[in-house]
Write a structure and sequence with these properties.
There is one protein chain. The two termini are 33 Å apart. The chain contains 16 helices and 27 strands. It is an alpha+beta fold. The strands form five sheets. It has an eleven-stranded mixed sheet, with helices on both faces. Strands 5, 14, 15, 16, 17 and 18 form a six-stranded antiparallel sheet that branches. A five-stranded antiparallel sheet has the order 21-25-26-24-23, with helices on both faces. This is Terpene utilization protein AtuA. Pfam families: AtuA, AtuA_ferredoxin. Residues 9-450 form the Acyclic terpene utilisation N-terminal domain. Residues 501-599 form the AtuA-like ferredoxin-fold domain.
Length: 623
């Protein structure tokens, strides 16, 4: 459709992952004025689960909740109102998802045109790629043998073409999360492949709502200021032809539309904010403006776009043995020490049995004491805890070995520590261990198509790219990996004329993962506090704070448009995702941990910090 001055396109984000709340779709359809309802279901682990399902039942391999829950609840109403739907619910079987939806439409007496996007599945090319020497883009490891799934991250162009072909519902397989929003905007406003600034803004719009309620108060640093969690509103964006948009939510819902929270979400799970790489565009978010326009409205503008790369990122999953985790509750004096010794003893005993039976050792083993703030390392304040949960996690190439391990958990209840108990003494099970592998593939090697009414149509996607990595920007600061033990604690008192406060008093934060790397977005609560952050929350300081977790370097990128910085912590998550044995494998808690860091604030600024994390929302990032 041609661009229309004054036109507004309204899109509701109804899902952030496979398993999001069933209330989202009805809330948005019945409680908001929207043109599109979009769903994001896919994570790397999700693709592996779907692959396993399809291996047992060929008709499966998609997000069944999309059909059985979301569409069943709203299908007649979206047909009546003319709302279009875009979802990456297809997983590894988009056509199977479309077939299931067709049956539901027949059952409900609804007739809508459904399009399917195909071409992301490259699993059939794995032998040739292995022969060609493809390696992991992060670790350099060779392509594993037991690949479960392999899918390229497609962009918004196929979605836009499907809508132009008259589709009412578009089902994709693997695409970047923001593509389900960018595609409709390209279609509605007539944006072309070279409209990079607008594509960047449309991608940012998708990025803001791709995690559902995270844009409307979910995970907000000042969580105590977010009302009515149980009735939290899901996000609605009102998009204009130039790409700028306003974030809001359905009336009479809970949650919070705050500039600070939208800023947190913008920095969520990105690396370099000046080069956020997507299939259709490389985005520069450094000068984005996020402005509070009222109690329920936040306006976003200012993203810039660069030509895309000539490759797609491919996410593969592979089998790497089996995993089991056992837990026991330990109560009483010295509970932390008793729990650690219990976990160590379980491993020692099990390893002895393995040796007797000629079995190999665990490929990995990890003991955590939950309740002792184990993940905080030297910053823990709970070493004297008197009620903890001992968790021991192990990997092994042989499933039968984990059956031996499982039998040795419960005996701890009578053999070792006093105060050992638990809510149940059933033996833990084991499950296949699925890990991730990422690589790039030239765009020209993929054939992408849409299928509408059973008729395939090729999709023409620019394949030459044009983006090239620029030299490190002057505002990028890097700290190398830390050698040796963690640094000693800082001075006991603040310097003269300054007040020592936890970082949470002057900043908002949100953290997430990218493989084995974690990012932490840090936003000053007011512009005059940003110099304090730049001076004291340096890459070296952050690396030292997380010395017990982070093995690689730490980079800091400036995001001046919202008075923020974004940290990228390399080798921070014990492999990340399913590979990690930590309690927080996705780095979701790292932002919260960083907010405990002490900083010294000039006394004149400190006087304005009364209320700290509960101060008024929005002012921090208003332009």
């Amino acid at each position: 459709m041609s661009e229309s001055k004054g036109k507004i396109v309204r899109i509701g984000g109804a899902s952030g992952f496979w398993g999001d709340s069933s209330v989202a779709a009805p809330q948005l359809v019945l409680g908001a004025k929207i043109d599109y309802l979009v769903f994001d279901y896919l994570a790397e682990l999700t693709m592996a689960i779907m692959a396993g399902q399809r291996s047992k039942r060929p008709e499966m391999g998609y997000a069944t909740d999309f059909v059985d829950v979301a569409m069943r609840s709203v299908l007649p109403e979206i047909a009546r109102r003319g709302i279009k739907v875009v979802a990456n619910a297809g997983g590894i079987n988009p056509q199977g998802c479309a077939d299931a939806l067709a049956k539901l439409m027949d059952e409900l007496g609804v007739k809508l045109k459904v399009a399917v996007v195909e071409g992301d599945d490259v699993s059939g090319r794995i032998p040739a790629l292995r022969e060609a020497g493809v390696r992991d883009m992060f670790t350099g490891a060779p392509l594993p043998e037991r690949i479960v799934s392999a899918n390229a991250y497609l962009g918004g162009i196929p979605v836009a073409q499907a809508l132009a072909a008259g589709a009412d519902i578009v089902i994709t397989g693997r695409c970047v999360d923001s593509a389900v929003t960018l595609g409709p905007l390209m279609h509605e406003f007539g944006w072309k492949a070279g409209d990079y600034d607008r594509l960047a803004m449309g991608s940012l719009a998708g990025h803001i709502i791709e995690c559902g309620a995270q844009a409307t108060g979910g995970l907000h640093t000042d969580w105590d200021k977010v009302p009515d969690w149980a009735n939290i509103g899901y996000p609605v964006i009102e998009c204009e032809a130039d790409g700028s948009f306003t974030v809001t939510k359905p009336a009479n819902t809970g949650g919070l539309i705050a500039a600070a929270n939208v800023a947190e979400q913008m920095l969520y799970e990105i690396g370099d904010p000046g080069a956020y790489i997507l299939p259709d565009v490389v985005c520069d978010f450094r000068d984005v403006k996020i402005e509070q326009q009222g109690p329920e409205r936040v306006r976003v503008s200012g993203a810039k776009g660069l030509p895309p790369t000539d490759t797609y990122k491919v996410s593969a999953t592979y089998m790497d043995g089996f995993r089991s985790a056992g837990m026991m509750v330990i109560v009483g004096i010295d509970a932390v020490a008793k729990a650690q010794r219990t976990g160590d003893s379980i491993l020692e005993r099990t390893r002895a049995i393995f040796r007797q039976r000629g079995l190999p050792d665990f490929t990995a083993a990890h003991v955590e004491v939950i309740g002792a703030e184990t993940c905080y390392g030297p910053h823990s304040r709970a070493r004297g805890a008197r009620e903890v949960l001992m968790r021991v996690t192990v990997n092994h190439p042989v499933k039968q070995a984990l059956d031996i391990f499982a039998r040795e958990i419960a005996p701890a209840g009578t053999s070792w520590s006093p105060g050992t108990t638990g809510p149940g003494f059933g033996r833990p099970g084991s499950s296949p261990l699925v890990k991730q592998f990422a690589f790039t593939l030239p765009k020209r090697e993929l054939s992408v198509r849409i299928v509408v009414d059973g008729q395939p149509q090729p999709v023409q996607i620019p394949v030459d790219g044009g983006w090239r990595p620029a030299p490190e920007a002057p505002d990028t600061v890097t700290a190398p990996p830390l050698a040796g033990a963690a640094p000693a604690a800082g001075p006991a008192a603040a310097p003269a004329g300054k007040v020592r406060v936890p970082l949470v008093r002057i900043a908002y934060a949100r953290s997430g993962d990218k493989g084995d790397n974690s990012n932490i977005g840090l936003i000053a609560r007011s512009p005059e506090l940003l110099p304090v952050i730049l001076e004291q929350v340096t890459p070296a300081a952050v690396r030292d704070w997380f010395a017990h977790m982070v093995k690689g370097q730490v980079k800091r990128y400036a995001v001046p448009g919202i008075h923020a910085v974004n940290f990228l912590l390399f080798e921070a998550l014990d492999g990340g995702g399913t590979a990690s044995m930590r309690l927080d494998p996705l780095g979701k808690g790292m932002g919260q941990m960083l907010l405990d860091m002490p900083v010294d604030v000039p006394a004149e600024l400190a006087r304005g910090l009364e209320g700290g994390a509960t101060q008024a929302q929005g002012a921090a990032v208003a332009a």
